[in-house]
């Protein structure tokens, strides 16, 4: 019987530690997203944004591949990727309030990240840049430029997959922020910043195919709210992690019910 009790306690400790660790993972993911966003602002200020023409893009890849990737979609892709680490902690904290809503938001996020990765064009453009540099005739260069235009039309900003990815990701962010408003584990500032930031981002995604200039203005206005949302998420997740770890150590009880 004592062996059974010892095994049960060890299993209980592993399970509790495992779930609580998700909060730490989510805090790290939010911190990395914040850092990537800030670095991207400095990169754009120092190097400029994405090249305006394919010829300029190909030349940049040949002269400085690193700069080309930095000015491309690399930072956007990384920010989206770290949602895979961010959302599990949100689900864990919010599932007692709205398990269906939190689970649905997690599913939308997973689909959005997969769509985003599937539509990234950086490596395709890098490959075409080498083909363009080695083209011997004007006809070959024209063909490669046409292939480049096709890639741009299907990339993470212009394709149907990209459009749905934005709707799913920002829609999930809005849904999670709404649930946060009903949960005491997250600050109201966190919830409101997430709701406004994701809401503005969702609006610009809806408008981008039809009113790109207006969408750009709305996207820029969403930036400050993300700069509030990510650090507040770091704060809240670390607090949840420390609280759960402290509760387990002092009371010997499972902080997160199965």
Write up what this structure looks like.
It is built from eleven helices and no strands. It is mainly α. It has a domain at 18-49 and 73-120 and 159-251. Helix 1 (2-47) packs antiparallel against helix 11, helix 2 (54-63) packs across helix 3 (65-71) and helix 6 (99-119) packs antiparallel against helix 9. The chain is elongated and about 65 Å long. Residues 1-15 and 253-258 have low confidence and may be disordered.
Distance between the termini: 24 Å
Query: What's the count of strands?
Result: 0
Q: Strand portion, in percent?
A: under 5%
Total helical elements? 11
Low-pLDDT regions: 1-15, 253-258
| Secondary-structure class | mainly alpha
| Rg result | 22 Å
- The H/E string reads HHHHHHHHHHH
Task: Outline the biggest β-sheet.
Answer: none
The portion of residues assigned to helices is over 70%
Return the average pLDDT rounded to an integer: 89
General form: elongated
